């Protein structure tokens, strides 16, 4: 592999730090960029009022930084919404591959504060694209979301399906996809768009479904289920996503100028997750509440394209991934 210099924008986030470590262990030269404000240290210190939760989240975030340092991955503290700063980093590092993760990674927060979501999604994306537009051999990887599909019309969503997001988060992600493609059309840069779904794994603080289930269970809090529990999500363990990104950067010829669903490829119900949780926490209390109508009804994302073109092969079923995450959480929660 000749193109081995990877810049991850949003690299201290949940996906970013896991991906940085995964690629570094596979001999890539990785730099990370993050302002540590969105879904990170500054946000937790300012907005999390519960002392136990704040302590837990801060410990996870500090572990991320320790792991980046341990793996000798530079972290550049930078507000990517300021164009001149990311331009300077790109000029100094000269990456072959730029992975853009900077965003408000929560649907309800985007709906509650659209301006924050725009500044930390569209503005940062624009500046990232600007930083490499004159570098013809660069490859830009954009993290979109399953939320771009909106309410699934069928049980399985394919990359070529019409996208119709219903909330601000999904709309920003879809407009980001269009911007990435337009830059490629105008300036000739290669790109890959990735659509993950219902991610979970170590050191997550982003209010994702499985994280909330385990977090509440360990703290002996009620778990609130929105709806009747029959709704399905394509739960994806973080290591499977990282393996898919590795496939993309390993063989850029096959992934260039394409969009891929990168999930486990088989949706499971919230009730399935409830059963797994109940096995670990016998006395856990679950409470049904009405679902948010702005939360898209989703299901399975087809990964046939990624399997065929990238040889993508996810390993973690919900049972296997949940068990691994539970063991990590059990060990780390007990030590806090």
Uncertain segments:
none
Evaluate the radius of gyration.
Answer: 19 Å
* Tally of DSSP helical segments: 13
CATH superfamily: NAD(P)-binding Rossmann-like Domain
CATH architecture annotation name:
3-Layer(aba) Sandwich
Largest sheet: 7 strands, parallel
CATH topology: Rossmann fold
Please, how many domains?
1
Helix content: 40-55%
The chain-level mean pLDDT equals 93
The strand line-up of the biggest sheet is 3-2-1-4-5-7-12
Please report which band the strand proportion falls in: under 5%, 5-15%, 15-25%, 25-35%, 35-45% or over 45%: 15-25%
Question: What is the structural class?
Answer: alpha/beta
Q: What's the total count of β strands? A: 15
CATH class descriptor name? Alpha Beta
Overall 3D form = globular
Summarize the helix and strand pattern as letters. Answer: EHEHHEHEHHEEHEEHEEEHHEEHEEHH
Termini separation comes to 41 Å
Structure report:
With 336 residues, this protein is α/β, with parallel strands linked by helices. The chain has a single domain (5-199, 236-263, 300-315), classed as Rossmann fold, CATH 3.40.50.720. It has 13 helices and 15 strands. Strands 3-2-1-4-5-7-12 form a 7-stranded parallel beta sheet, with helices on both faces. Helix 1 packs across helix 9 and helix 8 crosses helix 13 (318-334). The chain is globular and about 60 Å long. The model has no long low-confidence stretch (mean pLDDT 93).
């Amino acid at each position: 592999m000749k193109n081995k210099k990877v810049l991850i924008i949003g690299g201290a986030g949940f996906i970013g730090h896991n991906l940085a470590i995964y690629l570094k262990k596979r001999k890539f030269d990785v730099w990370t960029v993050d302002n540590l404000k969105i879904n990170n240290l500054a946000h937790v210190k300012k907005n999390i009022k519960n002392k136990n939760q704040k302590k837990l989240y801060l410990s996870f975030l500090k572990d991320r930084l320790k792991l980046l340092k341990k793996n000798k991955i530079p972290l550049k503290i930078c507000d990517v919404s300021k164009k001149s700063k990311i331009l300077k980093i790109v000029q100094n590092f000269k990456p072959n591959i730029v992975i853009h993760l900077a965003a408000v990674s929560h649907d309800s927060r985007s709906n509650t504060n659209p301006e924050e979501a725009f500044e930390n999604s569209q503005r940062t994306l624009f500046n990232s694209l600007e930083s490499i537009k004159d570098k013809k051999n660069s490859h830009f990887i954009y993290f979109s979301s399953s939320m771009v599909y909106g309410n699934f019309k069928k049980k399985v969503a394919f990359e070529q399906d019409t996208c119709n997001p219903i909330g601000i988060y999904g709309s920003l992600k879809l407009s980001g996809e269009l911007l990435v493609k337009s830059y490629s059309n105008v300036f000739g840069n290669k790109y890959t768009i990735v659509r993950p779904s219902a991610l979970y794994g170590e050191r997550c603080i982003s209010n994702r479904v499985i994280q909330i289930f385990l977090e509440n269970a360990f703290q002996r809090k009620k778990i609130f289920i929105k709806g009747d529990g029959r709704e399905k999500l394509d739960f994806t363990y973080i290591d499977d996503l990282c393996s898919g990104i590795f496939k993309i950067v390993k063989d850029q010829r096959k992934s260039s100028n394409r969009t891929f669903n990168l999930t486990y490829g088989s949706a499971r119900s919230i009730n399935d997750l409830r059963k797994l949780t109940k096995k670990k926490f016998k006395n856990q209390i679950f409470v049904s509440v009405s679902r948010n109508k702005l939360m898209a009804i989703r299901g399975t994302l087809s990964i046939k394209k990624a399997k065929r073109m990238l040889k993508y092969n996810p390993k973690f079923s919900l049972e296997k991934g949940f068990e691994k995450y539970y063991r990590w959480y059990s060990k780390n929660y007990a030590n806090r």
